[in-house]
Amino acid sequence: MTAPLPAETILSVRDLKTWFVSKRATTKAVDGVTFDLKRGKTLAVVGESGSGKSVTSLSIMGLLAKPGRIAGGEILFRDRNEQVHDLAQFEPKQFRAIRGREIAMIFQEPMTSLNPLYTVGDQIGEMISLHTELGRGEARARALEMLKHVEIPDAARRLDDYPHQMSGGMRQRVMIAMALSCNPSLLIADEPTTALDVTIQAQILDLLQRLQAQFGMSILFITHNLGVVAEVAHDVVVMYGGRVVEQAPVNSLFAHQKHPYTKGLLACTPDATRDLGTDGARRALYSIPGSVPPITNLPPGCAFEPRCSMAIEACRIAFPPLIPAGPETFSRCIRTHEL
Ligand SMILES: Nc1ncnc2c1ncn2[C@@H]1O[C@H](COP(=O)(O)OP(=O)(O)OP(=O)(O)O)[C@@H](O)[C@H]1O
């Protein structure tokens, strides 16, 4: 272990490298990613599609599909007994003791976690029986309590519903109930509201915040949407091409972006009032020119350089380090101090 885990940190990802190695190519989906998640807080990992967000969360959960493997780095996790584990070194069977119980995950599509053939009460009850000593009756009572926690109306009756009898937003609540049923200390939320319409999305984000205050869990929130980040995060990590390009507390990030990519992402974020012109017409939203380069073919210098309006010759030549750019703020841009 390089350095001990500070008491207030529940998860510390250090120089994580997750690669997909085949005969044809090595895809460095995550290449030297470092961040810390503080106890009881929410850290958002944000970036465009393909930036490595999901591969980071799957690495933490031990759910990488072959040929993915952790090629380097540490994933230090503090369990509820204050024991620190390096999940990067875990065997699959060690993950079984932690997944669900200590670390739970919710996804964009609830049906990846829910079985269409069983009632939601049975599924939450099963999860509870699997990870606790509770008997069937007690597990069912706890399942009901969880449905109430996630604010499902008429919870006692909905316990016997099958997932298809529920709306998308309700299914998402059930998935949250299931994830939180064993009181995990860490919840990984991978785009949990992306498939929902805006009103339902706002309700689910509110619910997650209330549950965080109530249960005290820490949340690693994966999203491509800075609007969602503003809503839920305490700290933010911005990823591009499998690397962290900016890291900052949420308020400083929105007040002052210290990487041109973050600036671009923010300009792409819809904002109902800002986008209305004086005539009330909706203006076209800015989009960052170009697209994320294939991860197997990143430029040698700054990965964002081909799309960056601030790029200079030096950006093309040398790979930029992550440098301090303000209080608790880091940027992988050599011109960050001009921003
Ligand atoms: N099984 C795999 N084999 C090879 N490469 C993979 C595999 N799974 C993911 N990758 C690569 O890893 C990179 C990062 O993917 P990842 O899914 O983490 O991105 P993301 O930021 O979560 O995007 P999205 O928002 O679309 O999920 C991508 O370039 C992808 O091609």
TrEMBL record:
Cellular localization per UniProt: Cell inner membrane
Domain ABC transporter: 13-266
SMART domains reported in the protein's UniProt record: AAA
Annotated GO CC locations: plasma membrane
Membrane topology: Peripheral membrane protein
GO biological process: peptide transport; transmembrane transport
Superkingdom of source: Bacteria
GO molecular function: ATP binding; ATP hydrolysis activity
Record key words, sorted: ATP-binding, Cell membrane, Membrane, Nucleotide-binding, Transport
InterPro entries: AAA+_ATPase (IPR003593), ABC_Ni/Peptide_Import (IPR050388), ABC_transporter-like_ATP-bd (IPR003439), ABC_transporter-like_CS (IPR017871), Oligopep_ABC_C (IPR013563), P-loop_NTPase (IPR027417)
A Pfam family hit: oligo_HPY
UniProt main location, coarse: membrane
Family the UniProt entry places it in: Belongs to the ABC transporter superfamily.
Record's protein name: Peptide ABC transporter ATP-binding protein
